[in-house]
């Protein structure tokens, strides 16, 4: 291998002119690091790392973390990174099961009026969803019980939002996303469509089922160690974008699933729990485009988006309350 330099090279930053006592005691390590953190030029970076360092060091001190425990943690995080592939994101899964994804999502997407609430993205979103027309199917034949999803995309004032891009993905009847199969020739049970001039959307799908998040990696081992199940209630993912509106990432959770209140990734919100209508009418099934049978489940849901201005105002109001120490 060619040698780039004939000697080790620093990053070019000079030693700081700070009072940094030798770290002879645990508390000096924390104090010195906090002083060094103030060198960051970006105020937000200083704020975030000041809080991160303070709480991380408090955790180490309060738990009297052992060397073996910390090394095990490093090995766990190393395994988490090594498990990631271009279609599997174990770090997102780790964030999900620790409730961090749901917490960040909730803080950054405050409820505005009757707007559709957000939910976690999850680790199974891909960029290769095929384009589907209104009424088309996102699932190939034989992937599960028929379902038709329809509704409108609206503003908080009830105005239709035309040409909104709707990405949607789900499991098949086996509880697998297409990316979990060893042979994935093309995307399945996922699609990309647009609302029409009246804000309407509609597509054929299959009824999703409850499923376990991957248990064959470090996150699965963590859940076993904590005595937690790795199940998610059945749900349908939606990501909606339109010019002038904040991107919405959400999911719909049919009622009655036993895992609704103990979702492994804390994604369920009350307003996102939905009800199916059972349809048993062969003429209606053909009208909806289903190739055989007479039964399907109908899921009707209006998606209500917030404008960028509404979102920014809500976030500013939250920041103001936080600054004033309000609950």
UniProtKB/TrEMBL annotation:
Q: Which GO terms describe its biological process?
A: catechol-containing compound metabolic process
Annotated GO molecular function terms are:
catechol 1,2-dioxygenase activity; ferric iron binding
Q: Would the keyword Oxidoreductase turn up in this protein's UniProt record?
A: yes
Limits of the Intradiol ring-cleavage dioxygenases domain: 122-305
Keywords of the record, alphabetical order, are: Dioxygenase, Iron, Metal-binding, Oxidoreductase
Needs which cofactor?
A: Fe(3+)
Q: Catechol dioxygenase N-terminal domain location, by residue?
A: 42-110
The highest taxon in the source lineage is Eukaryota
Which SUPFAM superfamilies would you find in this protein's record? Aromatic compound dioxygenase
**Pfam families for this protein:** Dioxygenase_C, Dioxygenase_N
Q: Which family does it belong to?
A: Belongs to the intradiol ring-cleavage dioxygenase family.
Name used for this protein in its record: Intradiol ring-cleavage dioxygenases domain-containing protein
The record lists the organism as: Dentipellis fragilis
């Amino acid at each position: 291998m060619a040698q780039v330099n004939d000697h080790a090279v620093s990053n070019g930053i000079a030693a700081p002119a700070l009072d940094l006592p030798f770290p002879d005691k645990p508390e000096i390590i924390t104090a010195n690091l906090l002083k060094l953190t103030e060198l960051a030029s970006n105020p937000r970076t200083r704020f975030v790392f000041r809080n991160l360092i303070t709480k991380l060091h408090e955790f180490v001190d309060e738990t009297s973390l052992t060397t073996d425990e910390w090394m095990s943690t490093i090995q766990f995080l190393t395994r988490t990174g090594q498990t990631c592939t271009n279609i599997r994101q174990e770090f997102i899964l780790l964030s999900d099961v620790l409730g961090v994804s749901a917490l960040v999502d909730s803080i950054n997407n405050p409820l505005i009026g009757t707007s559709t609430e957000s939910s976690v993205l999850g680790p199974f979103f891909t960029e290769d969803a095929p384009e589907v027309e209104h009424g088309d199917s996102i699932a190939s034949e034989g992937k599960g019980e028929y379902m038709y999803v329809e509704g409108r995309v609206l503003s908080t004032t009830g105005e239709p939002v035309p040409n909104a891009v709707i990405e949607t993905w789900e499991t098949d009847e086996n509880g697998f996303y297409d990316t979990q199969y060893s042979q994935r020739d093309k995307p399945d049970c996922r699609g990309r469509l647009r609302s029409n001039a009246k804000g309407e959307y509609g597509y054929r799908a299959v009824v999703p089922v409850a499923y376990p998040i991957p248990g064959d990696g470090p996150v699965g081992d963590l859940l076993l160690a904590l005595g937690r199940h790795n199940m998610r209630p059945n749900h349908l993912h939606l990501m909606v974008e339109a010019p002038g509106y904040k991107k919405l990432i959400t999911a719909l959770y049919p009622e009655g699933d036993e895992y609704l209140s103990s979702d492994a990734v804390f994604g369920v919100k009350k307003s996102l729990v939905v009800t199916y209508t059972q349809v048993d009418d062969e003429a209606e099934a053909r009208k909806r485009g289903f190739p055989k049978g007479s039964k399907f489940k109908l899921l009707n849901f209006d998606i209500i988006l917030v404008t960028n201005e509404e979102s920014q105002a809500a976030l500013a109001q939250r920041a103001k309350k936080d600054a004033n120490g309000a609950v």
